[in-house]
Amino acid sequence: MLPPEINVNRDDIEKFFIGHLNKIYAAKTLLRTELPELMDNVHFSDLREAINDTVEDVKKQISRMDEIYQIMAAEISDAGCNGMKGLVEDSFHDIKIHGENPELRDMSILFYLHNIESIEMASFQILEMAAVKLRNDRIKRLIKKNYEQARADRTLFLLISAKYIATV
């Protein structure tokens, strides 16, 4: 027996795509604000440099998403984006709990940034698959570039975590 054929019309794919792009966009704009403030509290120089690089990556990712919104003639909305924004907000709140202990604070930063990048990477990957149904090569390339950047950032935080924990 063959699995049932799945048919989703283009309008529904576009709604799905924009709705989930909004969630990532909300998280990225919050990171753009929060990450620079975090750098002043980072103890480990490699982590500070990685956060600085990530801030630049986030700006590029937001710019690409802005272009996608323009291509699709869609408006950015943060309605229903509390989950992703909440994760980022909770992360930065938890990092501040360890404000007096630089080693634990750095470990918390690494833990949360790795997790945030993992979720964003997975989200971009799903949107990349959905973009195939949109039949727009530019959108596919922009999402793919964001996915690759999120993956590289996640890998960087993982490598720094291994180096940092080995030295603690």
UniProtKB/TrEMBL annotation:
InterPro entries per the UniProt record, alphabetical: DUF892_YciF-like, Ferritin-like, Ferritin-like_SF, YciF
Xref: SUPFAM superfamilies: Ferritin-like
Gene3D superfamilies named in the record: 1.20.1260.10
Lineage: superkingdom: Bacteria
N-terminal signal peptide: none
Pfam families noted in UniProt: DUF892
Protein name as it appears in the record: DUF892 family protein
Annotated source species: Dyadobacter pollutisoli
